Amino acid sequence: MQTSLARRQRHRRDVKRGRPRGSSNLRRVVFAIPLLILAIFIMIGVGGLVAAAAAYNYYSQGLPDPKNTLTNLDFDQQTTVTDRTGKVELARLGEFKRELVDYRDIPPELLDATTSIEDKDFWSNPGFDVGGFVSATLDTLEGRPRGGSTITQQLVRARLLPPEAFTGSREERKIREIIQSLRLTQAYPGDEGKQEIITAYLNQNFYGNQSYGLKAAARTYFNKDLKDLTLAEDAVLAAIPQSPTRFDLVRNAEEVCTKPVAEGAECADANTRLEVPATTEIYQRRNYVLDLMKTRSPKSGSSHTPQDYQDAENEPLILAPQLSAHWLAPQFVLQVRSQLGAILCPDKTVDQCDKIDTGGYRVTTTLDWTMQAKTEKWLYAAGRAPNLKNTRQILKSLKIPSKDYSWIENLRRKNINNGAAAVMDYRTGQVLAYAGSAGFTARATKKFQPQVDVLSDGWRQPGSSIKPINYAIGIEDHTMTAATLFMDVTTDFGGRFIPTQADHAERGPVRLREALQFSLNIPSIKAGLMNGLDRFYRRSRDFGVKYKPGTLPVTSMGIGTLEVHPMDMVGAYGAIADGGKLMPRTMILRVVDTNGTVIWPDPAAAAPAGKQVISAQTAYIITDILAGNTEPKTNPFWGDWAIYDGSTRRPAAYKTGTTNENRDVHAYGFIAPPKDPNAPALVVGVWMGNSDNSPNTDTLSLASSAPLWSRILTDVSHGTPITDFQRPKGIVEEQIDAVTGMKPGPFTSRRFSEVFISGTEPTQTDDFHRTVQIDAASGLRWQDGCVGPEVTVGALDYSQIDAAHPTWQRYDNGWLKRAARGSGVSGGPKGTHTSYFYAPGFYPFGRSWGGIFAPTTLCPLAPPPSPPPCDNPFGLFCPSSPPPGEPTPTPTHGPPGKPKP
Prior knowledge:
Elements: H1 4-16, H2 26-44, H3 46-60, E1 79-82, E2 89-93, H4 108-118, H5 130-141, H6 151-159, H7 170-187, H8 190-204, H9 214-222, H10 231-239, H11 249-252, E3 254-257, E4 272-276, H12 281-293, H13 306-314, E5 317-319, H14 330-344, H15 355-358, E6 362-365, H16 369-383, H17 391-397, H18 405-409, E7 418-425, E8 430-435, H19 467-476, E9 485-488, E10 505-506, E11 508-511, H20 512-517, H21 521-531, H22 533-542, H23 566-577, E12 581-582, E13 588-592, E14 598-600, E15 611-612, H24 616-627, E16 643-645, E17 648-650, E18 652-658, E19 664-671, E20 682-689, H25 705-717, E21 731-737, E22 751-757, E23 769-775, E24 790-796, H26 806-819, E25 826-827, E26 832-834, E27 852-853
Parallel strand pairs: 1-6, 10-26, 24-27
Antiparallel strand pairs: 1-2, 3-4, 4-5, 6-13, 7-8, 7-20, 9-11, 12-15, 13-14, 16-17, 18-19, 19-20, 21-22, 23-24, 25-26
Helix pairs in contact: 2-3, 4-10, 4-12, 6-7, 6-8, 10-12, 12-13, 16-25, 19-21, 19-24, 21-22
């Protein structure tokens, strides 16, 4: 069997001698195209011929002559990205990794790998594959969209069409693309022409990891020349261009230790390597390419045996050590790159838009470099430092205040290895700070993959942070208010889905305000079902929340089990902060071309107006509720992480989220908008967890993401004017029963001043108390003859709260029986215990559920009156004693408790 080097040398000799190894019929096919078209025209008639010729001429207008286009491609201009001031350069796109290659230096295996996956008939088709196009079109019509473009079409679309060719409908653009592909193949005929086309294609392709061109990709991923690549490496490079960002090998890689280490010990640098796991999509796609190559290898022919391909499929995908690009805010820059692609190439994917990196643009972004530095500092302190040996030294070097050492060091050995955070101006949608991981250039591990952007690319359960959106939908629909009463009772919602609170307590009757402030799970699940799961799902998307493809509404979505992008949650909270208006998220302020012309934004275009997703009144009520979480007197648990500027508390609103098995912990919140309309109004979002989605060690958000959120927002808002949230028109304030949420009644013991959308305030007096008579001495239900005195009280009756939901009501009644025995009584489907609102040690409405439960036991009858004392020293003829020798009479009773006269 020939060696790889011998095969490649043979290939280069063949190229040099002009001996083509592709189809010998190509030239014949290309020049037979007019005859084929003519035959079709004859079949469809003269009218069809005239119409087709007219269409061809029409769509060819403005298309450049394809001759000499391949030799004039320019790959060298760089795009510069700066912060919002234009003074801090964040990155130069494509600056490190652009290398060109000649056809003679491309190994035959790489050619075969590329054509087998991208265009199996490349060497023989006329630039357009009719069968593939028709097949792809039919699949698209049947709901299975896929690409059907040849290599030539991809090259034409990326580099060889003028901007005006992309006007009109998608079908019109496709026609121009096909026409130009046919013309290019005619301009570069034969096998030699195909060599030039595929060389240009491989040189212009983006391969991820900031690498342009095949040669640069081989160098950055494997630190090899093309001639030294293995068969498996050839295949994986060919597999990347379909989606270079998703298939970026570095982003998919994990740092593994090649030698065993003791538990808790770190792997020495000399024993680590970057390896792409076999479970990743790109690894599997590589093996798919190898399978295709077994029967689609016209250039390498029979040089490889089936065993060679099998060995290649089993070969681990190991990368060379990576040199970091010297970018500032690198994950922000990558997001800017995506937005720039949408501006420059609206009809292409980002990976097809080569102008992003080679157009020489100057991009001024929304990033505030000072805020970015502060965000990265806190994120590294809480997300990475606790996992390193010298935690205290790192905190000192970062100038973290000593008062924060405790909560950060408490994260040691909690299995939280990563974090992400963003700061946004919610009135403009401008992203001011953005870090998709806790250290882009740090060493990767299975649990910490720093180049994966969790904020925008990661799918994470939001947990309880979804609850404000859930309740906002009900309030907006006027089916709920902040005073709506829920029963926090462990319930089987079907399918053995029986959620509980983390402390296994059931607090019984709670109003929406307290249910949201203290993040009670069961009320939120009931609210989601009351909203309607389909409506909840649909309306939450109005807030900018995107769900993982294929996701369907489920009962548990009320506690945040559907995966979302954390950055979408930042935007959703920004909409609540901005009076219900969702602003489009942007990271770019201005794009200028090489001539100094501003090409974006269009000066004639109106500023983005945003979308009103809920009313200003609903947004205010949710904000008012969440603001209580930064008032220690209202919520002493969440209030630990209030925002202060010096000794002054800054009004803010926030909510945390902890997901199933503590896999993700979140915190999202905002401060009141400044009076200056040009000053930023800040919303901050934080995520913490592990890249491999493994759970942490019993660490809730209040001990992790909440303090991190607090410290970032405190730092980035420091020194700015302190303002408070303003109440909009259409809000009324009413006194309500503090427990039931209704108008106070005769048995109301505590009152609360609640805010409502005008017209939704309660009109009915509290009717959760029923008048009953009890014996004051025993506390039992009164019957005549008890010790007394008889008193009238209002006893609680919550049995009808969930009357519209019989299943819920059944569990409510079980709780009521246990609650009648007091707090701490366990039972129900999960053995949870009754509890007053709230605990431990904090009972804002007293140690009760709003009153007493009606006793079911009658009070004991009073004993008969004691006989009067007898002054007869001999006891003779005393009134209470019969005369000697007479029997003691048996008393006869009238009505219970009343002696018969």
